[in-house]
């Protein structure tokens, strides 16, 4: 006899935006995007287990992550169960490997992981279409965390289309001690760019460079429309960015709404020596490969 599954662990990756094109705010307040997402090898592991009520915990305490109904993982679990008209609940445990409030979509990764884990825990057989739609209702970045790889994001970021990516690269992820609020960065973008277009263009040259696997070109084409707003709110990032460029990576980029900064390397040894150099100078940094898979089951128990 097959025993029922009582515990499922799903791993979900961080994301970066190789290109983040932002338009002027829509009537609903969200900004239209043309973004190229890439999933990178920093992960949160989310475990769900049958329980009488919904709850969430962390394997190690981390400031800034709510442990009540505001946690996006609980909202994801409830949303999927409600979609199926069921009255079920789970204990959610999150092992965080993705920096919090770093512009790497850790909360979105947890939501995506929870959707998949809850679906598998109770064998709900949710269609991909429904999973992606519910993900999009939870947050603009959540559908991409399900998909992984490299993808074009449009709408407010929730409409995702996989694109071919023959590059295989290493990101040096340079962390910041303080987070940046995504809504605050978008609000400041509106001040700096009052005439932003309604429909930001798809970065075709970058799409082509990725399809060919030309890392040099990808590095030269990295772009983030939120950089002027983020560096206004965090002027210290300007000096950090300059220091990173001196090390000669293939590219430097602000991750999403920041404040994490990224350096692109084709060669892992060069990436490792940049990390050694920066660590010696007091920076907190780590290496992540890209692109990697989206949310996937790692354990059934
Ligand atoms: C900037 C980006 C780039 O991928 O990533 P992060 O830096 O957060 O990782 C995203 O647009 C963040 O997406 P996400 O964090 O999922 O945002 P949501 O939960 O949907 O929205 C949070 C808030 O961000 C603003 N927002 C978000 C997306 C968007 N296209 N326009 C916006 O103006 C709104 O103020 C919204 O209330
Ligand atoms: N499971 C979660 N993990 C991290 N943050 C969460 C989570 N649920 C809700 N949040 C809230 O979402 C905000 C954004 O967090 P995060 O996703 O880490 O950053 P970013 O949007 O910069 O990528 C945090 O301020 C936090 O209050």
TrEMBL record:
Active site residues according to the UniProt entry: 15, 141
EC number(s) per entry: 2.7.1.148
Annotated InterPro entries: GHMP_kinase_C_dom, GHMP_kinase_C_sf, GHMP_kinase_N_dom, IspE, Ribosomal_Su5_D2-typ_SF, Ribsml_uS5_D2-typ_fold_subgr
HAMAP family listed in its UniProt record: IspE
Residues binding ATP: 99-109
Similarity-based family: Belongs to the GHMP kinase family. IspE subfamily.
Listed pathway(s): Isoprenoid biosynthesis; isopentenyl diphosphate biosynthesis via DXP pathway; isopentenyl diphosphate from 1-deoxy-D-xylulose 5-phosphate: step 3/6
Domain annotation GHMP kinase N-terminal: ranges: 71-149
Name of encoding gene: ispE
Lineage summary: Bacteria, Bacillati, Actinomycetota, Actinomycetes, Propionibacteriales
Domain GHMP kinase C-terminal: 207-280
Reaction it catalyzes: 4-CDP-2-C-methyl-D-erythritol + ATP = 4-CDP-2-C-methyl-D-erythritol 2-phosphate + ADP + H(+)
A Pfam family matched in the record: GHMP_kinases_N
Enzyme class: transferase
Function statement: Catalyzes the phosphorylation of the position 2 hydroxy group of 4-diphosphocytidyl-2C-methyl-D-erythritol.
Protein name per UniProt: 4-diphosphocytidyl-2-C-methyl-D-erythritol kinase
């Amino acid at each position: 006899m097959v025993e029922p599954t009582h515990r499922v662990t799903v791993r979900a990756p961080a994301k970066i935006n190789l290109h983040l094109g932002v338009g002027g705010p829509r009537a609903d307040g969200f900004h239209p995007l043309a973004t190229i997402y890439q999933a990178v090898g920093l992960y949160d592991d989310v475990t769900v287990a049958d329980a009488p009520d919904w709850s969430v915990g962390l394997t190690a305490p981390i400031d800034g992550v709510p442990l009540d109904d505001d946690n996006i993982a609980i909202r994801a679990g409830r949303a999927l169960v409600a979609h199926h008209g069921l009255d079920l609940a789970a204990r959610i445990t999150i092992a965080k490997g993705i920096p919090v409030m770093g512009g790497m979509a850790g909360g979105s990764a947890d939501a995506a992981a929870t959707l998949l884990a809850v679906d598998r825990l109770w064998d709900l057989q949710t269609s991909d279409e429904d999973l992606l739609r519910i993900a999009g209702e939870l947050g603009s970045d959540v559908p991409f965390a399900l998909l992984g790889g490299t993808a074009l994001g449009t709408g407010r970021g929730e409409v995702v289309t996989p694109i071919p990516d023959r590059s295989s690269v290493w990101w040096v992820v340079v962390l910041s001690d303080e987070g940046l609020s995504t809504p605050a960065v978008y609000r400041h973008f509106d001040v700096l760019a009052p005439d932003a277009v309604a429909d930001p263009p798809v970065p075709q040259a970058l799409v082509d460079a990725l399809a060919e696997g030309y890392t040099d070109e990808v590095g030269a084409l990295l772009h983030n429309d939120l950089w002027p707003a983020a560096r206004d709110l965090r002027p210290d990032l300007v000096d950090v960015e300059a220091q990173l460029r001196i090390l000669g990576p293939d590219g430097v980029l602000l991750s999403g709404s920041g404040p994490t900064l990224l350096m692109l390397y084709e060669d892992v040894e060069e990436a490792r020596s940049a990390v050694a150099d920066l660590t010696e100078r007091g920076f907190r940094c780590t290496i992540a490969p890209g692109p990697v898979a989206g949310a996937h089951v790692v354990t059934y128990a």
